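User: My instructor asked us to take a sequence, write out its structure as tokens, and then describe one feature of it. I'm not sure where to start. Here is the sequence I was given:
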Amino acid sequence: MTKAIDTKDIFQLLDYIVKGKAGVFILERKLDLLYSWISGYHIGSEQDSYIKNVDQLDDFSKFVQKMNHDEFGNTFGWFGSIRAIYGGDIEGFEKFCELYQEFRKEKNKY
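Assistant: Let's start with the prediction itself. The structure tokens for your sequence are:
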């Protein structure tokens, strides 16, 4: 039996998407579509105090900028840093998945 995901936790949802289930939430494996979905989820979190961990995406942005050697940052955070190098389609999506998994490993060390 598969463990149910907590749909109120952005990280559990992203874990699900990164593990190949993107079609459940976004139409295609494209960075631009993922960003739109996360942005909508972020807006929802401002209206629903039960949505968890959205604020920790700021930590993910810092992580991505460090990994991409983006010393000046980007006004679009993780999305802008990835998109500037890898584009908004599947290559950018795959890079997001790679960086996200590294970030989660780092976070789980503590």
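For the description part of your assignment, you could build on this observation: Residues 5 and 12 are 6 Å apart (CA to CA). Try explaining in your own words what that tells you about the chain.
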